[in-house]
Write a structure and sequence with these properties.
Shape: globular
Oligomer: single chain
Structural class: alpha+beta
Helix content: 40-55%
Number of helices: 5
Strand content: 15-25%
Largest sheet: 4 strands, antiparallel
Order of helices and strands: EEEHHHHEEHE
Radius of gyration: 16 Å
Length: about 160
C-alpha cells in the first residue's frame, strides 16, 4: 500500500523489481535544502517552475503506477531525474549509478532522498533485474534489493 492524504492505495500485483542503491556517500540534507533555498532566492521563477513540473509529473506517475504502465512509470522516473539534476541535487556518482542501471535495461532510475549522494532507485523487470544489479555494483554502488509484496504487516 501507499498512502496519500489518509487514503490507502494498494500496490498493483505484478512481476517487477526495484533495486535501491547506496552510493556509500552520505549527504547532508540540511545543507542541500539550504542550497536549494538560496537558489530559490536568486531565481524564484526558475525553482518554482521546476517544482511545478515535478508536481505535474507526480500526478502522471501516480496514474501510470495505478494503471500498471511500468514503461511510462520508468520514463517518468527518468524525467524526474532530469528535473532533480536541473535543480542541482544530483551528483556525479548518482549520475554514474543511474546511467549504469539504465544501460543495463532499467525502465527508469532516479535519485532518492535529498540527493547529492546516498541513494537511487531503479525499476526493472524480472528479466533485467540481475543485469541492473550487476551494472550498479560494477559502477561502485551497493545494491539493496527491494521486492514488492514480500510478507509484511497487513490491514484487515
Amino acid at each position: 500500500f501507499f498512502f496519500k492524504q489518509k487514503t490507502a492505495y494498494e500496490i498493483p500485483k505484478r512481476d517487477w523489481s526495484s533495486d535501491v542503491c547506496s552510493s556509500d556517500l552520505k549527504a547532508d540534507t540540511v545543507s542541500i535544502v539550504t542550497r536549494v533555498a538560496e537558489e530559490a532566492k536568486k531565481n524564484q521563477a526558475r525553482v518554482d517552475g521546476l517544482y511545478a513540473s515535478m508536481g505535474e509529473l507526480v500526478t502522471r506517475a501516480r496514474a501510470a503506477f495505478i494503471n500498471q504502465d511500468w514503461v511510462q512509470f520508468g520514463r517518468l522516473m527518468d524525467e524526474d531525474q532530469l528535473l532533480l539534476s536541473e535543480l542541482g541535487v544530483s551528483s556525479e556518482i548518482l549520475d554514474r549509478l543511474i546511467a549504469a542501471a539504465r544501460g543495463a535495461g532499467a525502465l527508469g532510475a532516479k535519485l532518492s532522498g535529498a540527493g547529492v549522494g546516498d541513494c537511487m532507485i531503479a525499476l526493472g523487470t524480472p528479466e533485467t533485474a540481475q543485469a541492473i544489479t550487476d551494472a550498479i555494483t560494477n559502477a561502485g554502488g551497493t545494491v539493496i534489493p527491494a521486492r514488492v509484496h514480500a510478507p509484511a504487516a497487513s490491514l484487515s
